[in-house]
Amino acid sequence: MDSKTLLMAQEIFRLSHHHIQQFPFCLMSVNITRIAIQALREECLSRECNRQQKVIPVVNSFYAATFLHLAHIWKTQQKTIADSGFVLKDLEVLAKKSPRRLLKTLEIYLAGVSKGQTSLLGAQKCCGAAAPHSKDLTFTGVCDLPPHSSEGMWPV
């Protein structure tokens, strides 16, 4: 959504590649999208949508807040992929029961990021907003991949 949530997304992405606590980032994203859509359909976000007089920005913020909470639980409780079903189930219950709490946590997190004081897990940063070990992500499109030899391949 903006540079502050981009930093959050990068930190979550790095957590998803942790050597012990790794998780499938895209699948978690799909699950959180499902939770956000269900919360909207079940009118759990109605109060906030009415307060802000907007729907899409509220759903986007709710999605980010839900992913932030997932990452916080994942890291602080040292969850692994074996815990993912339970974590998602608990996350869905919390998201539907206390959406305002999740959104407030996101606001606090983003305020800390804008001051360069907060990382994903609430740790204080010593070197400004960007972590010294952060890397730019590079994506390769399917068309950019080198062609493979067709030896040993058969038509399907």
TrEMBL record:
Pfam families: ELMO_CED12 (PF04727). It comes from the Eukaryota. Residues 1-99 form the ELMO domain. InterPro entries: ELMO_dom (IPR006816), ELMO_domain-containing (IPR050868). This is ELMO domain containing 3. It comes from Pipistrellus kuhlii.
